[in-house]
C-alpha cells in the first residue's frame, strides 16, 4: 500500500546552465550531483549552423540583415571581455529568431533598434551601453535618430476605422469580445513617445509574442498596457505579484463559500481558458523561482497546475479529459516590471526570463511629448511653468542616470504637480514642488543638488515675494529743446549734390565646407532666488584666450537667433532662444594669423532674413573680407564686391603708423531684408550689396566718410570725417529712376535754439553712437517730449547726451526740432582703477570699434554698456559699501518714466590675456545687442551670454508671473515690523553674560544670545561683535538704526568677530594654507564622493543567517499552515536553513572594508611621472569623505605597505577621522612615509595579512581593496602568486587596483 515500484522506463533528463566559475552563489554542481548524472555539453551553434536554423524557420528574412546580425553576435560571443559577455545572454538564438521574424514582416525596421531593444540598452550601465553602440556602428548598423522632432512629422496618432485599428504605420483588426466588462478604459493623453512604444508593441503582438514592459516607477507602464488593450478591445485579467507570491497563488485562489473552502482559478488560468490578455504587474517583486514557471507556459504552451490539472496548447491532446485545460489561441501575456536594482529593489526578472518575451523599455517621455501630455492634464497652467517643470525633471533624471542622485523622478510626479496646479492655481509652483521633494530635504547633499537644479530652471523654491533686487532708478535731467537740423535750405547750391551710381556684378569664390559643431546650451534662469532685470545666462564653449568681438540677434517666427563672433581664432557661435544647443563654426583656416606684423582681426556679423534665414554675412574690418556662411550646410563663400580689393595688402612694417591702416565698415540695419552697405573710413564711396540679386551698386560721394547710419531704407545719414558735418543721402524712390543711377546728397546744418553768449555752433558737432532705423510710436514720442505730437522722428545717442529725439527727421525737409537730455559730463570710456590704464595700455584713443549703444523703440529706451568710470557709483552705493566687480554697467535711459538706471553686469570669471586687443574692441568687458522687440542680450569677454529685460511693462508682467510661481504665504510665522527708534545708544561690543536658564532676552545690552538689543552677541540687534543664536524668536531692529552705529563701534565689533573666528580656526587647528592643500585633494574627487555616497545609501544586507524557512515541501509541520494542509496544499512544512536576506532589508551588522595602500618609495619616486602618489592620496580622501556618517553600514580601516613593513597603520576602524584637518594629517602621513621609507615591497604580505585580519570580526560582508603601483616584477612577484593571495579566503571579496604603471607593467 502506497509503495510504488519504479517503472523500468523511468528516466530523469535535467537541463541547466553551466556553473559560473569563481562565483559563490551559482555553484550548484557539487560532488553529489556530479556522480548522479551522465553529462552532455550542448555546444553553441557555429555561425553557419545558426544561419541555417534561422533561414529554415523564417525563409522570408532578408539575407544580408541575418549575416550582419550573426557576425555581430558571434563577434560578441567570442571575446573574453566581461562587458561583452554581459550582453551575450540577451542575444540568444531565441532572441535572434524573434528579431528575424519581425524583420521578415517589417523589412523597414532598424536592426540597431532591434538589438538595443533585445538587450534593453536603456537600463544598461553607461560603459556597457557605449560598448554596445560602438560595436553596432563598427558592424555597419545605422544608429537610429533619437530626436523626436523628426518623428513628429510622421503621424503617430491612432485611428479606428471600420473595425481596424491603426497606430502609426501598423494596423490590426479590433477584437469583438464576449466580456466587454473586462476591457480596460483609462484616462490616457496621447503623446508621440508613448504612441511609438505602442506601435512597437502592436508589431510584436501581431507576430504572436508575449510582451514585457520594463521601466522605472511612474513612467506609465500600466497606462500604456491598459490603453493598448482598450484600443484593441481585448478583455484583461490582472495579477499583481509581491514578495510572498507562491507558485500555488499564481495558479489557484482559495476563497470560503458557505463555510467551505473553494478553489477558484487564478486570473492566469481564467485568461488561458477564455483567451483574455493576462497583465502581470510588479513581476520583478516575486522571487524568480516562482516567476520561472511562466517560462514553460510561454515557450511550449504547457503548464501543470498545483491541483494536478494541465494546460496544453494543442487541442488534439485533450482526448476529452477533465483535467486538461486547452489554451485559447487568443491568450497573451503582458508583463510589467521595474528595472532591477536600487531604488526599486526588485529581482532581475529580465535577466532570468527576458529572452522569452518581446521586451520594450518604457522611459519617461521626451521633453516635447511630456510637454504635450502635461498641457492636457493642466490646460490652464501657464506654458512657461510646464516648460520649467519638464526641463528641471529632465535634468534630475539625467543626474539619476549618472548615479549622482538615487531616485529617477518620473512623469507620475510631474503629472501630480500639474494636476495640483490645475486645481489650485493660486498655490504657487515653489510650494507645490515641495510636495514631491520635501522627503529628500532631510539629506543635505541631496537637498543641495535638488535646489540647484530647480533654481537652474527658474523654479523659485526658497524665494520670498519680497526678494526683488531691481536696479536703483535716478532722475533724468529735464528734456531741453536744443535746436534745429535744417536740411537743404535754399539759396546754397552746394546744399544739394547729385551722386553718380554704377552697378556691377560681384565675384563669388568657393564654397569651402566647414564642420558645424553642436554643443549643449546649459541655460540657467537668473530669477531663482531674486527677481532682477537679468532673465537667464549660459556660457559659450570658448577657450581662455579667445576674444568676443560682436553680438547680434535675428528675429524669426518662432525663436530669435543670437550670433556671436570671436576673433582669436575667428569663429561664429549661433544659438536659438529658446533653444537647447549652440552651433559653432571655427574659421581659423580662412583667417590664419599673418606672419608679417601684428594682425588683430575684427569680425562683425550680419544675419540675413526671409529666404536666407540661417545664413550670415561675416565682415573683417581690416582686410575687408566678406564671407557668406550657411549654418545649415557649413558652406562658406567669399564675396568680392570689387576686383581691386583682391590685391594683396601692403606689407605692414613695425614703424608704420597704426592710424594709416584703413578700416572698412559694414552697415547692417537692414540685413534681414538681405541688403548691406559697406564703406571705407575716410573713403568717398558706398558699396550697396544686394545678396539675393547678386549685384553691387557703388555710389560715389564728394565727401570723405566718417560714419554711415541707415535711418530708413532710402535715406541715410552720413558724417564727414574731420569736420563731423552731417549729410542726408536720399536714394530715388521709383525703381525706374534706379537706372539713371543718381542719388541726392543734402547737407544738414545744426542750429542751436538761441546763439547765446559763448556758444558757437561748431563746438557741439558730435558723432552719434547710434541712430534708430525706425521711429518712436506717437504715444512714446508724446510721452518723451511732453507734448502731443505726431511726426516722423528718430532717436539718437552720443557722448554728450543720454538721448536726443529729432522730430520730423528724415522724411520732412523743413527744420527738424531736436530735443535732448544732456549729460553733466561727456562720456570718456574710463575704467575705474588706475592700474587698468597700465593694464590696457594707456588711455584709449578713438580706436574703440564697438559703440555699445542701442535703442529699444517699443520700450522707449536707450541702452548702452558703460565702464564703471562713466557711472555715478556714489549715487548707487552707500558710502561704506564697496562697488562690486563688474564687466560693465547697462545704462538704461527710459524716456517714458524720465529715469535712468545702471544695471551691473556680473564680472566674467576670467579675461583673455590679450588686453590691448580687448581694449580696441570696446570700453567695457561686455557687448550688447537688442533681442526681439524689447529684450537685450549681452556677451561678456568671458563668454557668458546674458538675457535682460528692461522695459517697464515687461518687467511688471514678469514680476507678476514670478510672484504667482512663489504663491501666497501660508501659515508660516509672519513677521510684523513696527518702525520706531529704540532711543538707546551703543557703547562698545562685548560677548555678554551667559544666562544659565536660557531665558529669552529682548532689547537691552547685558545678556549673550538675546535678540533686538545692542552691544552683545545675539541676533537682530545692533553694535554686537558677532551673531549668536540661542534658539529664540528674533526681534529685529531696523536697518536705519543699524546703519547709525558709529564707525569706531563697528570697527571694534569687526575686530572682535575676526578674533573669535581665528580662535575657532585654532580649535580646528587648520591654517588657511592647510585648507587650500586639503581642497586640492578633496576637490578632485568631489563628484566621485557624491556617487559613492549614493551607492552606500542603497547598500543592503548580504549576510545569510540560519532561520526557519517556511513554505517547504519537507521538514516539520508548520502550525500556521494546518488549514492549507487540510485543503490539499503541499508546501506546509518548515525547516532550519540559511536564508538569503530580503532585497533591501537593512544590515544587522556593518560590512567590513580594509583599504591597503601602497606607500612604498616607488610611489614617491615616480609621482612626478604619472602622479601615482597624488592619485592614491585622492582615493584615500574619497574613501574617508564618502564613508563619513556611514559607520553603521561600513567599518573601514586603512593600512599602508612599503619597504618598512606590511602593516603601516593609517586609519583605525574605531578611530576614523572626523574633520578635514584629521583627514589632511593622514594624507600628509602617507606622503611623508613614502618619502622617507626604505625601498622594498611587501604587497603580498600586506594583502594576505589584511585578508586574514578582516575575516576575524563578525560582519555582513568582507572587502579588501589593494591599491598598488604595478612595480611587482622588480621584486620577482608573479601575477599568479598575487592572484593566489587575493583568493586565499573565499569569505573575503578582495580586489586589486593598479594606480601607476611604467610602460605596460599593469597589463602584463
Q: What would you say this structure looks like, in words?
A:
The chain is α+β, with helices and mostly antiparallel strands. Helices cover 28% and strands 25% of the residues. The protein contains 36 helices and 57 strands. The strands form twelve sheets. Strands 15, 16, 29, 30, 31, 32, 33, 34, 35, 36, 37, 38, 39 and 40 form a 14-stranded antiparallel sheet that branches. It has a five-stranded parallel sheet with strand order 5-8-12-4-13. A five-stranded antiparallel sheet has the order 14-44-43-42-41, with no helix packed on it. β9 (303-304) and β10 form a beta hairpin. The longest helix is centred in the last third of the chain and has 22 residues, at 1047-1068. The two termini are 69 Å apart. Mean pLDDT is 82; it is low at 148-153, 489-494, 646-659, 734-739, 755-763 and 832-846. This is von Willebrand factor A domain containing 8. Residues 984-1023 are annotated as: Disordered. GO terms for molecular function: ATP binding; ATP hydrolysis activity. Residues 1152-1308 form the VWFA domain.
Question: Any chance you could write out the topology, listing elements then pairs?
Answer:
Elements: H1 31-36, H2 47-57, H3 63-78, H4 82-88, H5 93-105, H6 111-119, H7 126-138, H8 148-153, E1 158-161, E2 164-167, E3 170-173, H9 192-206, E4 211-215, H10 221-232, E5 236-240, H11 247-251, E6 252-257, E7 260-265, H12 267-274, E8 277-281, H13 288-291, H14 293-300, E9 303-304, E10 310-312, E11 324-326, E12 332-338, H15 349-353, E13 358-361, H16 367-377, H17 383-401, H18 411-423, H19 429-437, H20 444-456, E14 473-475, E15 480-487, E16 496-505, E17 507-513, E18 517-520, E19 524-525, E20 534-539, E21 548-555, E22 560-567, E23 570-577, E24 581-586, E25 603-607, E26 615-620, E27 625-630, E28 635-640, E29 664-667, E30 675-680, E31 685-690, E32 695-700, E33 705-710, E34 715-720, E35 726-730, E36 742-752, E37 770-771, H21 778-785, E38 793-797, E39 801-807, E40 816-822, H22 835-839, E41 853-856, E42 861-866, H23 873-876, E43 886-894, E44 899-906, H24 915-921, E45 926-931, E46 935-940, E47 944-949, H25 952-966, E48 1010-1011, E49 1018-1019, H26 1039-1043, H27 1047-1068, H28 1072-1084, H29 1086-1097, E50 1105-1112, E51 1116-1117, ...
Helix pairs in contact: 2-3, 4-7, 16-17, 17-20, 18-19, 28-34, 29-33, 33-34, 35-36
